[in-house]
Design brief:
By secondary structure, this protein is mainly beta. The chain has one domain (about 5-165). It is built from three helices and nine strands, in the order αβββββαββββα. The strands form two sheets. Strands 1, 2, 5, 6, 7, 8 and 9 form a seven-stranded antiparallel sheet that branches. A two-stranded antiparallel ribbon has the order 3-4. The protein starts with 5 loop residues before the first helix and ends in a 30-residue tail after the last helix. About 20% of the residues are buried.
């Protein structure tokens, strides 16, 4: 059973309709500096600010999310994956994929519950799932077609599948800004090292 905020449950008890919108928050990285670059998109028809855990967040709407997002959220240790399609023409999306690194970027998906008559928020948006962006695919349309950007997302359980540091190679480590910490990892333990004194020569 979903753990909905009490104001939402109270509204549902009246048997009145409920409007639900999806909010997606992604924290990308600046390709040059590595600084975080947050961006928010939602299924609403306009740009709007929502407060999440005391933090105001700006979410871009007006068709940025081109498909309804079927949020995948289940209990357990299985990695839950889903796809989110966003407009390839929206300037906010173009800036995000051109200027920032999205691979591995943390994401959160919230559901905002509104009164359909007043369109007022019933409670703070409810967290449905979180994790990291796995891949990004930019769809280039044929003439007259419609393109877009598909983000493939994985739940937080994905972190449990990462390779432990003992199995990382020098080549993989070099991808982290040229880090050579594991340069001699493949010969570790097979080379004798003498510390603090000269190695004694064997007697003939």
């Amino acid at each position: 059973m979903r753990d909905l905020p009490q104001p939402v449950l109270t509204h549902l008890a009246t048997r009145r309709q409920l409007a639900t919108e999806t909010l997606i928050w992604i924290i990308a990285r600046n390709r040059q500096t590595g600084a975080p670059a947050p961006a928010g998109f939602w299924s609403g028809a306009y740009e709007s600010e929502f407060t999440i855990a005391g933090e105001p967040r700006l979410y871009h709407g007006a068709g940025v999310l081109t498909d309804a997002v079927g949020v995948v959220s289940r209990k357990g240790l299985d990695v839950q994956r889903q796809e989110v399609r966003v407009s390839g023409l929206a300037p906010e999306v173009l800036a995000l994929i051109r200027l920032y690194d999205l691979r591995g970027a943390p994401f959160q998906i919230h559901q905002a519950h509104l009164d359909p008559e007043t369109m007022s928020l019933l409670a703070e948006p409810h967290l449905e799932t979180e994790g990291a962006v796995e891949t990004l695919e930019e769809l280039r349309p044929a003439p007259g077609g419609e393109g877009g950007v598909t983000l493939r997302l994985a739940s937080g359980m994905r972190a449990l599948t990462f390779t432990v540091p003992l199995k990382k190679s020098d080549e993989a480590q070099k991808m982290r800004g040229g880090d050579r910490f594991r340069r001699y990892g493949d010969i570790s333990g097979s080379v004798q090292t003498i510390w603090g004194e000269k190695k004694a020569e064997p007697k003939k």
